[in-house]
Amino acid sequence: MAATQSTDSAYRLARETYAQWGVDADAALRRLRKVSISLHCWQGDDVGGYENPGGELGGGLAVTGRYPGKARTPEELRADLLKTYALIPGRHRLALHAIYAETGGRRVPRNEIAPTHFKNWIDWAKASGLGLDFNPTCFSHPKADDGFTLAHQDKGIRQFWIEHCIASRHIGAAMGKAQGNPCVTNLWIPDGYKDTPVDRKGPRQRLTESLDAVFAQPISRKYNLDSLEPKLFGLGSESYVVGSAEFYYGYAIRNKKLLCLDTGHFHPTESIADKISAVLESLDEILFHVSRGVRWDSDHVVILSDELQAMAQEMVRGDYLDRIHIGLDYFDASINRVAAYVVGARSVLKALLIAQLEPIARLRQAERANDFTSRLALLEAAKTLPCGAVWDYYCEQSGVPSEGAWLREVKQYERDVLSKR
Could you tell me if residue 319 is left (phi over 0), alpha (psi between -120 and 50 degrees) or otherwise beta? Predict the structure, then answer.
């Protein structure tokens, strides 16, 4: 889709403005086209999956809202996702949870899932030009009802979850091999205590032993990248989380795993942007889950907030984009689910574009000269540069609706498809 005359004219003027600040807008768009965001399948059906349709969530997870039209089958979810991707510029990915296996109506224990149960997803992704990522599902299961999985005191229960995570790694590797690039297989567990524990050491020792067993078999990084996701607290684990940031950071360094920084999994006053350069001094790559907490880890739809822009700036200023795998992680059932996807993904891309359009050379020059007055003035001036014109041009060049048009398509899809479910 070629840009309209008005969009093209606005972009030319914006490009000239940016050039006066030493910024190459064309180069910024070329860099942005290389960014792939991994959308999360669980926004489309409220973290339901197909293992036990209608089952209740557990493990510190909660979805609020009953907006009509949620995907009830894999086919409906894939249709909604294709509509979503058609409204987001660039080529992107999909993160699947293990409970989205297609088992032909048979009950398959989670420790027995295999790549064949994801064949439809693999074939669909390949035909659609999408990449896949994967997640073991260590919640919403009888063997996780007491809030413990890999750190459980019961050896049999620990073994069940070890086997599930091993199976998940093999599924991730099968996805990576089929698509010709690595699948990021990310592990999050709910393990922790609601009230203050006496023994903090024991569960972490058990978790270490379980993780060592999960990762005992080497898998080529050409196909699968293992990632570990920490959390500060969760529902039912307010006082103690076994897999804390410090725990997983140390384990990731020792064992050359990816660390997942989820923007909702830290204290609300912490700067996640500041953590990026800190952890990448010790780790080759990280996974970055973009969420939005409101007062707590509430998984609201991502918006173009100051926090998001700060994180995007750090990724760009540090030249880290080739070392960071970006994924979305939220769920909101109070609004149109396709729109929730689109708002979040486009917000991340806009934040990265704005960061690419900073007059970074002038900012660095001022900082190196200890001219902090100029640095502050330049940062403020950059906020009102015409990034919107560049964004609309990028959308139209990518064959997707510009900022004022995509919602009409979602509303039409709701009338034609979602409202009839």
Answer: left
Residue 398 phi, psi dihedral angles, 5° rounding = -90, 0
Q: How distant, in Å, are the alpha carbons of 86, 238, 246, 247, 408 from that of 197?
A: 49, 11, 18, 17, 52
The second-level CATH assignment, the architecture, of 35-356 is Alpha-Beta Barrel (3.20)
pLDDT digits (tens, 9 = 90+) for 75-97: 999 999 999 999 999 999 999 99
Does this model's pTM top 0.70? Answer: yes
What is d(CA 111, CA 325) in angstroms, rounded to the nearest whole number?
27
Cα separation, 244 vs 197, in Å, equals 15
- Model confidence pLDDT, tens digit, residues 155-208: 999 999 999 999 999 999 999 999 999 999 999 999 999 999 999 999 999 999
- Just list the catalytic residues: 188, 229, 231, 262, 265, 289, 297, 299, 329
Which residues in the chain are classed under CATH 3.20.20.150? 35-356
pLDDT at 59 over 70: no
pLDDT tens digits for range 2-29: 668 889 999 999 999 999 999 999 999 9
Given the DSSP bridges, would you call strands 224-228 and 258-262 parallel, antiparallel or unpaired?
A: parallel
pLDDT in tens, 339-348: 999 999 999 9
Q: Which residue matches tokens 């991707």?
A: 85
Structure tokens at 126: 């390949």
Six-digit token pair at 162? 């070890």
Residue with the two structure tokens 């409970």: 99
Backbone angles phi, psi at 232, to 5 degrees: -75, -45
